[in-house]
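User: I'll paste a sequence; please echo it back and then give the predicted structure.

Assistant: Echoing your sequence first, then the prediction.
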Amino acid sequence: MADVARLAGVSAQTVSRVSNGEPNVVEATRQSVLRAMQELGYRPNSAARALKRGEFRAIGVITFTLATTGNVRTLEGIVASAAAQDYAVTLIPVGAPTQDAVRGAFTRAGELAVDAVVAIMETHLVGDAPAFFPAGVKVVVADSDDAGDRHPVVDTDQRAGAAQAVAHLLGLGHGTVHHVAGPESSYAAQRRRDAWRQGLEGAGRPVPEVLHGDWTPESGHELGLRLADDPTCTAVFAANDQMALGVLRAMHERGRVVPRDVSVVGFDDIPEAASFIPPLTTVRQDFEQIGSLCVERVLGQVRGTGPSTGTTLVPTELVVRASTAPPPAG
């Protein structure tokens, strides 16, 4: 900075104001300082400035995987909202759903100099122990079912979305609804499965065996073949759109026409859902809103203006397309 000041013929304080983008610098002086910076190859030390201010303007995001639609789109929402607040996002992957792995991720977050953390905790930890969050860390949890009494939680209203799917199919006249669920380790899959069961029991309908997939079209196809071979199956609620795609393929291979013979509903409303054959009826999640609320809640903690506990649920919307219809007559 002293070298830049000498070359530009200004004080080090003026160089500091230009580096920080402060407005109270004459434009000609600003340009002179910028030319000196470029000539000398000077770059401001953002870490040093952050330490001086006591903030890094960065949010850490801890996640187990980016292989699922929910995690990727939630991350997209977080990144967009953080950028609008002039915050950067640092991704901190967790290798395994264990206490030690989560603890290590928070340690890395501290080393990477972030102001706060959004933890996307979509999976039960091994042993079902509560996730480890160090004391004093500003943290918001996304996609978790058991942390609202200790930290702010933001999630889709999973139960309401699944209930919408079941009510839609029963309202069309189907006697019951079969369910292709997500992994048993997933909080979201658990909540959707529970709401599916409660919807059937509340309507006095039989509850078929739950079939667990792994969120992929391949698992939906494998389980869909089993359902296609069951002549009593006229309605299927898949816990995400990718598995619903696999179910559609299985029905086609077995000669069962959707929705004439079998109705299928998914969950997520991925961009491709409207282009499935037939276009998929599904439950839409507002991932942009989830990401925005995560950033709002965590920056509220940083600024001392937000809640330190409590759960915020983002509403879902049933999007009816051509994959559902009344059951076949007789």
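The chain has eleven helices and twelve strands. The CA atoms of residues 162 and 192 lie 5 Å apart.
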